[in-house]
Structure formats: C-alpha cells, structure tokens
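Milestone 3.1: sequence recovery, worked example.
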C-alpha cells in the first residue's frame, strides 16, 4: 500500500480512539483531570485501570468522532497542560510502582499563541527528560497519527509499537512537501520519501513491533486489533515487570542513544 494511503487511514475520523482501546483492554478505568497548574486539557486523557488484575497507569491523546467532540478535544492537539497532566500521572505511577501504557494519536502539539506562552516547548522537553529515567516499565502505542514532538512527548518508553496503518513523522507529508519543494500537492511523494509508515520504521529499528489490522484499517474490525494488542501487552508487560529496574533504565537509555545508527 502506498504510504499516503496509510496516512489517509490513520487520519480517518472513524478510526478507534485512545478511549476505545482503554475501555476494551482495561478494567475499572478511573480518569484523572488537571495538571495542578493551569487547567484540564481534554486532548489528553489519563488515569488508573486494572490490566488482568494489575494496577496500571494509562494515558492517551484523544481525538473526537464528531465535530463537537473534536472541538472539545482540540482535534487531538494537546496544550502544555495536557503534557503536564501526563507527566503528573507518570510520576504518580512511579511512586506507586505502576507500569505506564500510552496511546498516541495526534497531528502534533497545539501551536497556538496561548500554548506557546504557557511553555509548550518546555512541557514537551521535560516529558522527554523525565520519561527517560522513569523507574517503571513503559510502553507507547501509536494508534493513528504520530506528529512531531507532540507525539514524541509520550513515546520515550521501553517499547514503542505502531498499529499497521499508523504513522510517525517529524511533520506531515503536506508540511514536508511545502518546505522542501514549495508544493504541498506533492504530499504523496513526500510520504514515500519520509519513511513514516509502521513497516518503514520497524525496518529502521525506530519501533519495536507492528500490530496487525484488517484490510482497510482497524475501524473495519476493532475487536480483532484490540484483542491482538491486548495479548501482546500481556506478554510484554510480564517480561518488562520481571526486569531489574536499573537494567531497564540502561536498556531504555541505549535504545534512544542508538537512534543515530539506523540502517535500512
């Protein structure tokens, strides 16, 4: 499938959201609100849940399925308080020794004036720094779009997975084509050049696992992908939780330090 076709699937409004996966995979999800600093950002959801009886912290970037929901969720573009809420929950998870599981689906962090005034760049940078040394097992899953630092802010984890039709890139294909070729109409060509699909990034060792979807995307059979993802999480969490925390931190550090050594 051409890369830009996967971009279109990743952006579908009908694609399952973070809350869809959380409600299907976990039990007794209790959502927490606010960053204890400014306000609650509805583009980022998070809280505590049970996974096969084990307490975990789950966090997700949430898009809507209707215009009203998307406006409330800011189309899945977090403000700095969203990232600060996520960090508050991750630090809480560290205190109580809970694994952290993140669901990522965003075109990028919100670039508005207010967000910049309240420290958007600092909020993202702090998440990167804190997640690198978080003393609990961590897993991030790209379920749709993964745009720039807005996605990376929740992806410095022990394991990074992608659904088969999700994408992960420094910017959109349209933005890439506009900057490099001064022609946004070349977005299809840009998507191929950028290597943004799950299969491309698995070959480059930028992600660890690709979760299968049915033909046309997981919105056509949500249960298939959600159940497969749950089974993969069961095995991976068991393995990560059995590791010594110092070993886990060293492996996480080395994983991201080796990003400059990607080969095709």
């Amino acid at each position: 499938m051409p890369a830009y076709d996967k971009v279109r699937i990743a952006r579908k409004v009908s694609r399952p959201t973070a809350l869809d996966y959380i409600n299907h995979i976990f039990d007794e999800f209790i959502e927490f609100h606010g960053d204890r600093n400014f306000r609650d950002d509805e583009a980022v959801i998070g809280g505590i849940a049970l996974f096969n009886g084990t307490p975990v912290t789950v966090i997700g970037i949430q898009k809507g399925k209707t215009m009203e929901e998307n406006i409330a969720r800011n189309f899945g573009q977090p403000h700095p308080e969203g990232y600060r809420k996520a960090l508050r929950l991750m630090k809480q998870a560290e205190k109580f020794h809970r694994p952290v599981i993140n669901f990522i689906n965003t075109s990028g962090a919100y670039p508005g004036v207010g967000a910049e005034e309240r420290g958007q760049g600092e909020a993202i940078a702090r998440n990167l720094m804190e997640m690198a040394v978080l003393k609990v097992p961590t897993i991030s899953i790209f379920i749709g779009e993964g745009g720039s630092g807005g996605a990376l802010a929740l992806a410095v984890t022990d394991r990074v997975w992608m659904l088969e039709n999700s994408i992960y890139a420094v910017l959109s294909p349209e933005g890439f084509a506009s900057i490099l070729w001064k022609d946004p109409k070349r977005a299809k060509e840009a998507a191929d050049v950028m290597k943004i699909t799950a299969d491309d990034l698995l070959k480059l060792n930028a992600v660890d696992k690709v979760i299968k979807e049915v033909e046309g995307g997981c919105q056509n059979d949500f249960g298939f992908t959600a159940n497969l993802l749950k089974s993969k999480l069961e095995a991976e969490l068991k393995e990560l939780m059995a590791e010594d925390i110092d070993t886990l931190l060293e492996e996480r550090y080395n994983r991201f330090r080796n990003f400059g050594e990607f080969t095709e």
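The two ends are 19 Å apart (CA to CA). Residues 86 and 217 are 28 Å apart (CA to CA).
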